[in-house]
Design brief:
There is one protein chain. By secondary structure, the chain is of the alpha/beta class. It has 2 domains: about 10-70, Ubiquitin-associated (UBA) domain (Helicase, Ruva Protein, domain 3, Orthogonal Bundle); about 95-285, Vaccinia Virus protein VP39 (Rossmann fold, 3-Layer(aba) Sandwich). Helices cover about 35% and strands about 20% of the residues. The strands form 2 sheets. The chain has a 7-stranded mixed β-sheet with strand order 5-4-3-6-7-9-8, sandwiched between helices. The longest helix is centred in the N-terminal third of the chain and has 15 residues, at about 55-70.
Length: about 290
């Protein structure tokens, strides 16, 4: 981007970076600013306040390399190491799925089922970075939240995020779904399990190319994890307790049939902000 006569100001580099990233990003200006902030180790407010500051040749070269990586599709969250979820900055690495805004619907629905003034128990299946567990634990300080994941790297990250956010009513355990909570009961079980079909072309596009396959691929039709969860979930939910699962936009009916086969009641679908089917909840009665 730069030569000896080129304007090395923050403003010029941000304009050029935005133009380049417009071809690959839905938020090119934000991405350009986040990458510049990484290079300069400054907040975005600094970039806005001092747009005429000149970059050194070393800083310019570093910024250009980050732009190349982002243009190649590397997720901005993995590059910066931070993703915001439920107004919490969380550390993320390629060991975990990047928390999505639509997953906040899962948190919203869970909170509606959790009274603020009672002690309750919550189980989060496939905790990953800890985003859902931490959001619920922060909003319901009287709740005991347990997040489980089969990935040790994910658990280490989730525990670090709990310390970062100073949330102490949450615990993270290594577990293949319910294995680490045998004999325990929960008022609510929530989960954002892998639900992408193994032949889905989206696995080879965008952020998914860089994310752990284990956190995305759920076999034929993307239903394997839902089946594994629903076969056992009723053993871990108190009577009248709730199960809430995030899923793909075309999976509600198949998931509903699985829930009905396990005799769940009050099966309800909730759509995300974009109007897509996103969370299905049901109640354990028997």
């Amino acid at each position: 981007m730069a030569d000896s006569d080129y304007d090395l100001s923050i403003r010029q580099y941000l304009e050029d970076g935005t133009a380049i990233l417009r071809r690959v990003s839905d938020s090119p200006r934000l991405d350009a600013e986040l990458l510049m902030g990484m290079v300069l180790r400054k907040p975005r407010s600094f970039l806005h306040a001092w747009p005429e500051q000149q970059l050194s040749e070393e800083e310019a070269a570093c910024y250009e390399e980050l732009l190349r990586r982002r243009f190649a599709g590397e997720p901005i969250a993995y590059m910066t190491g931070i993703r915001e979820f439920w107004s919490m900055p969380l550390r993320v690495t390629p060991a975990v799925l990047i928390p999505r805004p639509e997953t906040e619907l899962l948190v919203e629905r869970a909170l509606l089922r959790l009274p603020e003034d009672e002690e309750t128990r919550v189980l989060d299946l496939g905790a990953g970075s800890g985003a859902v567990s931490l959001a619920i634990a922060r909003e319901r300080p009287r709740a005991q939240v347990i997040g489980v994941d089969i990935s040790l790297a994910a658990l280490e990250l989730a525990r670090g995020n709990a310390k970062l956010q100073k949330i102490d009513n949450v615990e993270f355990r290594e577990s293949d779904w319910f294995d680490a909570v045998r004999g325990e009961k929960f008022n609510i079980v929530v989960g954002n399990p892998p639900y992408v079909a193994e032949d889905d072309p989206h696995l080879g596009r965008g952020d998914a190319r860089f994310e752990p396959r284990l956190a995305l691929d759920a076999g034929v039709g993307g239903m394997n994890c839902f089946r594994a969860i629903l076969e056992r979930a009723h053993n871990y939910i108190v009577r009248q307790g709730w199960l809430l699962l995030e899923h793909g936009p075309d999976q509600h009916m198949a998931l509903r049939r699985l829930m009905e086969a396990q005799h769940y009641h009050d099966i309800t679908l909730h759509k995300d902000a974009a109007g897509r089917d996103r969370v299905t909840e049901c109640r354990f009665v028997e």
